[in-house]
Amino acid sequence: MTYVNTSDISPQMFVTVLLFLLVIAPMFSLGILRLFQGKKKAGLLLMASGVGVYVVFQLIMSLFFEH
What we know:
Elements: H1 11-36, H2 40-64
Helix pairs in contact: 1-2
Keywords: Membrane, Transmembrane, Transmembrane helix
Protein name: DUF2768 family protein
Organism: Paenibacillus campinasensis
């Protein structure tokens, strides 16, 4: 069994990742749900918003947490 060393993750990075995951994951899952319900516009809008938030997340991570 292999363990991952998480001791070098700062509390600020942990909180940032946690907050973005609480936004990105629900957007994608709600988008897929709306697509299955036949609401294409709402589903695609939610999924596009999730991609947009992911891009913002990548920008923030590269600007503030670069090693």
